[in-house]
Design brief:
Strand order of the largest sheet: 6-2-1-7-8-10-9
Strand content: 15-25%
CATH class of the largest domain: Alpha Beta
CATH superfamily of the largest domain: Vaccinia Virus protein VP39
Number of strands: 10
Shape: globular
CATH architecture of the largest domain: 3-Layer(aba) Sandwich
Order of helices and strands: HHHHHEHEHEHEEHEEHEEE
Largest sheet: 7 strands, mixed
Helix content: 40-55%
Number of domains: 2
Number of helices: 10
Structural class: alpha/beta
Distance between the termini: 49 Å
Radius of gyration: 20 Å
Length: about 280
């Protein structure tokens, strides 16, 4: 792509994101531009659009197009017990603190289709904490939230999920937590009733509850620096005194203005405790 064509694509992307914000009130304008542009350009054949300007024009005349576009604008990739060493660190280093509370609230920010939230529900069940825990699981994609709330996943994925679960310190068998029928696996209702799935945007919304643990993994990497700071401020405002924050493996508090408010608990797993 020539410099001129690249500049034109950038201009069209800015106009598209402005239109999305003003018409649908979703703010992607401070997301990392390079990765967002790659996703939008890759989606053009799906929408049968020659360029981003044509896609923007379609959005103006067909509101149903936006729900489809939202799948491409957001990254909905997750696994049960993704990065098992992270969950093992939570089990070993964070759970002993959580056990001291009479009731618990956790927040999984950017929950996609729910795999991480259900992973926490299983972990807390095995540590005897689930009955006194409410897990908030939030995302900006309503389609993903509906899928998460249903708690039904492709059964073929559970071979990998089971490996992750055992490496994360699982105390039983992952098959104890779901019922397989044909090609689908339905999670145990005990897990689903402990999780509240709801819409929340780190780009525009504020803190909504005080929690003992926030897990916001592989979300900040899609934001520019300014939006990362805004999001970290929202997360910080949600964490109680001596509560915990978990970030993704490519994310860090190191250069954030909020770094002095936290101490590293397990540096390699990006686990922090509020001072």
């Amino acid at each position: 792509m020539s410099d001129g064509a690249d500049a034109e694509t950038d201009r069209q992307l800015v106009q598209l994101l402005d239109a999305v914000f003003h018409r649908y009130h979703y703010d992607f304008r401070s997301y990392a531009a390079a990765s967002l542009k790659r996703r939008v350009v890759a989606a053009l054949p799906h929408f049968r659009c020659a360029d981003i300007a044509a896609l923007a024009e379609g959005l103006a005349t067909d509101p149903k197009l936006f729900s489809d576009l939202l799948r491409h604008l957001t990254v909905q990739v997750s696994d049960f017990f993704r990065d098992p060493s992270y969950f093992l660190a939570v089990r070993e280093k964070v759970v002993p603190y959580l056990q001291t509370y009479p009731s618990l609230k956790l927040w999984v920010a950017g929950c996609a289709t729910g795999e991480e939230a259900y992973s926490f529900a299983i972990l807390l069940h095995e540590e005897g904490l689930l009955d006194r825990t409410l897990i908030y699981a939030t995302d900006i994609n309503p389609e993903s939230l509906r899928a998460a709330e249903a708690g039904i996943f492709d059964v073929d994925r559970f071979v990998r999920f089971s490996e992750n679960y055992l490496r994360a310190g699982g105390k039983a068998s992952l098959s104890d937590y779901y019922t397989a029928r044909y090609s689908s696996a339905m999670l145990d209702r005990r897990l689903r009733k402990s999780i509240l799935f709801s819409d929340h945007s780190l780009a525009t919304d504020s803190a909504f509850a005080e929690v003992q643990l926030v897990s916001c993994r592989n979300v900040l990497i899609y934001f520019d620096r300014g939006l990362q700071e805004r999001a970290l401020g929202v997360l910080k405002d949600s964490i109680c005194h001596r509560g915990f924050l978990g970030l993704g493996s490519r994310e860090s508090l190191r250069f954030s203005i909020y770094a002095p408010l936290f101490r590293e608990v397990v540096a390699a797993e990006r686990l922090y405790q509020r001072l």
